[in-house]
C-alpha cells in the first residue's frame, strides 16, 4: 500500500545529481523573517531540521559533523577557554564546545533568533547546552558582531552555510574577512576552524580547495580534514588554520586528551578516527596543493544549493 | 525560495509513468485500524485527502468527480427518493445526493468509521451533509450491508476504490455481485451508477471497458460517460446501468431539470457539460463495444495502485 | 531487477507538478543550430520526439492532437484549397491537411530545417505527406514568411510552441500579429485555427482564455474546443476564428462531411467526438467569457515550459 | 537549456532513499542471456556501465573502487604470483592486478561472456589488460570454477555483486563457501579479499559487518577497510582475510612498496590514503567487533538492490 504514493524530500546535490529522502511526517512548520523552518521525520536520517527547504542537520548523523567541526580545533589548542561561533543556531556546535572542561565562555552569533529558539525547544540533544551559563547567544550578523567585539578568542568556529550564489554567507569566507576582521580577534595561539563544504574526490574543487587556499594566504599553518557524512551524500571537509603549528595527532595522545579534556564519550571521534580524517586521500591532497583561487568579494566560488548550517 | 520547496508526493500512475505533486504542508496524520489517514496541503490541487498514502480527493476538483458520479443517475431517475452509497466515506457523494429535493433517505456504508469522522470534522464542504437528518451512515462492508438490507433503493451509487490487486474492492465489481446482491435491492426503475476508473484513450481498457461490459451482462441498458479530472491525471469514467432505458439527455431539458430538482448551483455540470461527458470519443466507444471480459471473482482485472475513493 | 534502476524523463508540468515517463531507449540524438533533437522510446507513449528536451509529440496519441488541430477548421470551411501552417515541422499537421481532397496547396513554414528533415526520415507516419507534391516547405520564421507572402489562404493553422517566457513564439499569439500580419493573408471566408495550450478546468487561465480573447478582438467569430491528450497530461485546447460564422456541427452532417471530404479513416474524430470537443465544460465556458486579457508584445502571458509543437 | 535536460537514472539506494543521476546519452544497449547491458554517458560520473539497469562502474571513480579492492591484498602478500578473480567481468580488477610486477597469472571467472567482450571492446582503460598474456578468462560460475581448479592462488579476489535477495551471489559470501571451497585454493600465506558493500556509519550493518564476521570464522586474521566512492553514494568497504597476520601498513613502507612493485602511478592510493582506509571510524570498528551474524545459505543478509560488480 505504501508503494502507491510516497512523500519525498528532493534535494539537488548538483545540477546533474539529486536525491530524494522519504518523509514520514512533518513535525513542525514555521517561519522567521529570514527563512522557513521545518522539522521533518525522515525515513533514512531521523529528524531533519530544514531551513528554507534545505536540510541543515539530521538526527542520525549530526554528531559526525559537529564533533568533527569542534573537537579537532579545541584539542589542538593547549587550553581553549573562550570560543566564538559564527552561526551555529542549531546549538549543536555550542553543545560540543561546552563539553570541553577548559571552556569558560562560548559566544554564539546567529542572525535568526526564531531558529535558535526553535532548536532550543525542539532538539532535546541541545537542551542542556542552551541552559549552560557559559553560553552567550547573540542575534546578529556574525561578521558585525565579531568586528565589534572587544575580546579575543582561543578558537573561532565557522559553522556557516556554504558559499551559495546570492546568499550573503560567502563574505565570511573571503581573504579580507579572515585577515581584517577575524584574525585580530584570535588570541595568541588561537585557531580558526571552518566547515569547508564537500570534500570528495569529485567535489573538493567546488569550494573546499578555495577556502583552504584562502586561509593559507592569511595564516601560517592550515590543517584540512574530512570524513563521510551520510545525510550530506558526500565526504565533508573542514579546515583549521592558525599562526601556530597545527601538528597532526598521534593516536594515543589524542585518546588521552579526549578522555581528559572532554566530558562524556564522543560518538564519532577517537584518536584513530580523527587521524583518518586528517589523512586526506592522495588526489585531494594534490588538489589542495595545486589550488590558486582565493576568495574575495569580487571573485567567489559558489556551490549548488547544498548549504548546511546557517548562521548568517 | 522555490528551490527550497522540494517536498513531493510521488504517485505511480502506471509502472512506467509517475507524477509528483508538491506538498506545502501536512495538515493531519492519523490512522484507523484499516488505513493511514492524511490531509495534505498540495501546491496544485489544494487540500488532498490521502488514505494509505493514496490521494482520494482533492479540494480543487473533487466537485468534478462527485457531481459526475451522482447527478447523472439521479437526474435520469424520475423521482429518486432512496439512495444507497457503497463507500463514499469522505461524505462528498452523500452531499451531492442530498442536494436533490426529491431525496428522502441516503444510506451510506463505509467500512472505516475513523475516516468518516475525520472527514466530517475536517472537510468544511461536507459538514452540512453530515448533519442532514436524511443521511444514515453505517460502518461496515458495503456488500454485507447491502445484502442484508430489507429495503430497495432508487439509485445505488458505487463510490468504491478501483479494483486493485490484493484489495478486496474488486468483489464489488463482479457479475455475481451485481446480479445476486445489488440488483435485487434496486427498486423498479432503479439505477446503479459506479465509478469506473480511467477512461482515456490509452487507459480505458485497464478496467473501464470490463466494468462496463460486466454491467451490460446484468442490466438491459448501460450508459457510460467520462470527463477529465485533473488530480487523477487522466480522463475518468462512470457507468450507469438499469433495466429501464437510459436516454441521453437533451441539453435544454437537463438544464431545466437541474434548476428544478437540485438545490444550489452546480460547479461543474450543466446540460451541455453532461452531454459532452456522455459523448465518449470514437475510439473509446469502439473499445467498449468490442470488450468481452466479464469480472468474476476468478477473473478480475486490476489497475495499478491508483485507487480513488474508498469505502470497502 | 528492473526495479533497482529506472531511466526516467522528467517534465515539469507546472512548478508544483511534474511527471516522469519511463525511457526504454534513446533512438536518436542530434542537434540543429536551434535546438537539440532526440527521439526516445518511452514506456507509456511509444516514440517521443523531443526538442530541447521537451516532448513534442508522442506516437501513441499525436493523432488526437493533430486531427483536432486540423480537421475542425477545414471541415468548417466549405472548400479549403490553400492552407498555411505556421510551424508544424514534425509533418503531422501537413499530413492531416493533405488528407482533405479539396486541398491543392499546403505551405508549411518551420524555422528548423534539421528537425523537418529528421522527422521526414524518422517518422514513418509522415513519409507520404512529405512526398506529396502539394506540400511546399519553407525554412524560416513563420511570421516573416507569412508577412511577405503574396497569396491568401483558406485556412491558416498555428502549430506553434506555447507562449513560453523567453521564447520568441509568443509574438505569434499577439493581437497585432493576428490583425496586421495574419488576417490580411486570409482569403474571404478564411479561418485561422491555433493550438491554445492547456484547457483543463484548473489550467485554462494560463494562456488558453487569453489566446481566445485575443482572437475575439480581431475576428467576428471564435470557436474554442478541447479534448484530453494523455501525453500532455491535461485537457488540451484549440481555437478557430473567422469573420464568417463558425457554426457548431450537427453530428450527422459532420460524419457525412468526414466521409466525403477526407481520405482514409480518422483515428480520433467523428461527428460525435468533435461535437463533444466543442462542448467545453461550464466552468471553462464561463472563464472564457469573463477573460479580459489581450496578448500584446508588452503584455503576454506565459506557460511553464510545456511547449508542444515547434515551428518558430 | 538545462531545463531541457531532464533524463534521469533513478536508483533506489534504500527503500527510503533514492538518487537520480542525469543522463546525457545512451551509448550502447544490448543484452546477454544473463542480463541487459547498457553504457550511459552520465552528467556527474562520466560513462556508466549498467547491468540489468544497475550501475556497475563509473568512469569518474571506478579507480577508487578497483585500486582499493586489489592493491591492499597484493601489497600485503610478500610475492603474489597467482591471482584468482571471482567475477570482475568489466576487466578493471584484472587490470589493477596485472600492474603488479610479481604477478604471473590472473584467472578471472565471470559467468557472462557477452559482458566481458563488451567491456573489452568499449572500455579503453581495460584494453591493455584484456590483451595481457598473463590473463586467463573463463566464462562460468566462479564457485564451480574455483572448486574444480587444481591450482592454488596467492590472492583470491571477490569482485562479486552484493548479496541481493533472489540473486545467486550470496552463496559466495557464506561460511561454507569460504571454508570448504575457497580456503583450500589459497596457497600458503594466501589472502582472500572481497568487496563488502556499504560501510558508512549508517549502513555498515546491512551486510558489511556480517561478511566480516563470516570471514573471521574461517580465517585467523581479517583486515577491514573502507573509503568513500562517490558514484556509490556511500562509504564502501572491503575485507582481507588470511591465516597469516595482516599487519596495518606503515606509510613510508607502503609508498616504497607501491613504487617498487606496481607499474605506473596509482590514481587513488598511496601509503597515507591506504592507512586512512584501514582506520575505520570508531562506530564502525565497534560495530564490527559486536557483530554475531554469520552468512549461511539458510541465514543470509541482503542489501537493497545496489549491486556493484557482477561476476556470478
UniProtKB/TrEMBL annotation, chains A, B, C, D:
Gene Ontology BP annotations: polyamine biosynthetic process
- Which EC class is this protein assigned? transferase
Q: Which SUPFAM superfamilies match?
A: S-adenosyl-L-methionine-dependent methyltransferases (SSF53335)
Against CDD domains, the record matches this protein to:
AdoMet_MTases
UniProt-annotated catalytic positions: 159
EC numbers: 2.5.1.79
- Give yes or no: UniProt keyword Transferase: yes
User: Any coiled-coil ranges, and where?
Assistant: none
- Keyword Transferase assigned to the entry: answer is yes
An example of a GO molecular function for this protein is: thermospermine synthase activity
Member of which family? Belongs to the spermidine/spermine synthase family.
UniProt-recorded name of the protein:
thermospermine synthase
Amino acid at each position: 500500500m505504501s508503494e502507491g504514493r510516497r512523500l519525498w524530500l528532493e534535494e539537488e546535490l548538483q545540477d546533474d545529481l539529486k536525491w530524494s529522502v522519504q518523509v514520514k511526517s512533518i513535525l513542525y512548520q514555521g517561519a522567521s523573517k529570514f527563512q522557513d523552518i521545518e522539522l521533518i521525520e525522515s525515513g533514512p536520517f531521523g529528524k531533519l531540521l530544514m531551513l528554507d527547504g534545505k536540510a541543515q542537520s539530521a538526527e542520525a548523523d549530526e554528531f559526525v559533523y559537529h564533533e568533527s567541526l569542534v573537537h579537532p580545533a579545541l584539542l589542538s589548542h593547549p587550553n581553549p577557554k573562550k570560543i566564538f561561533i559564527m552561526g551555529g543556531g542549531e546549538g549543536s556546535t555550542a553543545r560540543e564546545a561546552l563539553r570541553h572542561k577548559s571552556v569558560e565562555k562560548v559566544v554564539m552569533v546567529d542572525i535568526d533568533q526564531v531558529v535558535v529558539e526553535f532548536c532550543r525547544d525542539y532538539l532535546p540533544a541541545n537542551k542542556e547546552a542552551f541552559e549552560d551559563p557559559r553560553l552567550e547567544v547573540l542575534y546578529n550578523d556574525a561578521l558585525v558582531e565579531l568586528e565589534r567585539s572587544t575580546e579575543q578568542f582561543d578558537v573561532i568556529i565557522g559553522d556557516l552555510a556554504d558559499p551559495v550564489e546570492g546568499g550573503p554567507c560567502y563574505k565570511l569566507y573571503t581573504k579580507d574577512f579572515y585577515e581584517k576582521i577575524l584574525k585580530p580577534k584570535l588570541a595568541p595561539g588561537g585557531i580558526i576552524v571552518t566547515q569547508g563544504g564537500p570534500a570528495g574526490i569529485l567535489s573538493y574543487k567546488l569550494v573546499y580547495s578555495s577556502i583552504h587556499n584562502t586561509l593559507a594566504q592569511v595564516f601560517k599553518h592550515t590543517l584540512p580534514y574530512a570524513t563521510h557524512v551520510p545525510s550530506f551524500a558526500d565526504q565533508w571537509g573542514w579546515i583549521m588554520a592558525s599562526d601556530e603549528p597545527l601538528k597532526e595527532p598521534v593516536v594515543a595522545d589524542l585518546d588521552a586528551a579526549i578522555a581528559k579534556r572532554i566530558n562524556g564519550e564522543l560518538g564519532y571521534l577517537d584518536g584513530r578516527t580523527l587521524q583518518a580524517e586528517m589523512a586526506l586521500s592522495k588526489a585531494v591532497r594534490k588538489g589542495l596543493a595545486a589550488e590558486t583561487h582565493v576568495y574575495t568579494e569580487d571573485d567567489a566560488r559558489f556551490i549548488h544549493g547544498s548549504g548546511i548550517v546557517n548562521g548568517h
